[in-house]
């Protein structure tokens, strides 16, 4: 792991490792959110996204291969914090509201992932790493699509909540 970054390539490789950790953290979070969710529809949404996340991990590993460097899972404290916050809210929430909490937690994580991929794509383009950029764009497209699905499901769950 890098102690200090002197070159854009070093910073990019570190951030790519952070993205790999982010996706592994997301995969674990999706399993937990799936188990906590109350409706079959929400559980299915999380199960589907797990498959996409596995593909995103494979894309990141391939990006490392294209760069000729070993995959590095640099720390991703943001995803760990989002997971911790989501788990704490699920534990405090009545079962009738849990789907709203799990969808919200997943949506927050998606927005972080979208920002991470947008940043990585900018750097990959600047370095001329076209194939790596294509893999990152595939991941970004999936994340944006998932964000829309989660947004729609969260709206439906919010409207289905019992009135106060």
Please count the helical segments: 5
Q: Would you identify the CATH H-level superfamily?
A: Ferritin, core subunit, four-helix bundle
The description of the largest β-sheet is: none
How much helicity do the residues have? over 70%
Overall pLDDT score: 94
CATH fold assignment: Ferritin
Task: List the defining traits of the structure above.
mainly alpha; Ferritin; 164 residues; 5 helices
Topology:
Elements: H1 8-36, H2 40-67, H3 77-92, H4 98-127, H5 130-160
Helix pairs in contact: 1-2, 1-3, 1-4, 2-5, 3-4, 4-5
Quick structural gist:
By secondary structure, this protein is mainly α. It has one domain: Ferritin (Up-down Bundle). The chain has helices at 8-36, 40-67, 77-92, 98-127, 130-160.
């Amino acid at each position: 792991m890098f102690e200090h970054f002197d070159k854009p390539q070093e910073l990019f490789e570190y951030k790519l490792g952070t993205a790999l950790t982010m996706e592994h953290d997301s995969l674990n979070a999706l399993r937990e959110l799936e188990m906590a969710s109350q409706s079959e529809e929400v559980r299915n949404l999380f199960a589907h996204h797990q498959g996409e996340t596995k593909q995103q991990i494979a894309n990141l590993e391939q990006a490392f291969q294209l760069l000729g460097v070993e995959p590095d899972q640099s720390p991703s404290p943001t995803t760990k914090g989002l997971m911790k916050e989501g788990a704490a809210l699920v534990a405090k929430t009545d079962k009738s509201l849990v789907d709203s909490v799990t969808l919200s937690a997943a949506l927050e994580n998606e927005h972080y992932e979208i920002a991470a991929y947008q940043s990585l794509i900018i750097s990959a383009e600047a370095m001329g790493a076209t194939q790596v950029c294509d893999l990152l764009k595939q991941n970004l497209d999936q994340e944006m699509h998932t964000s829309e699905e989660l947004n729609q499901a969260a709206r439906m769950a919010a409207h289905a909540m019992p009135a106060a």
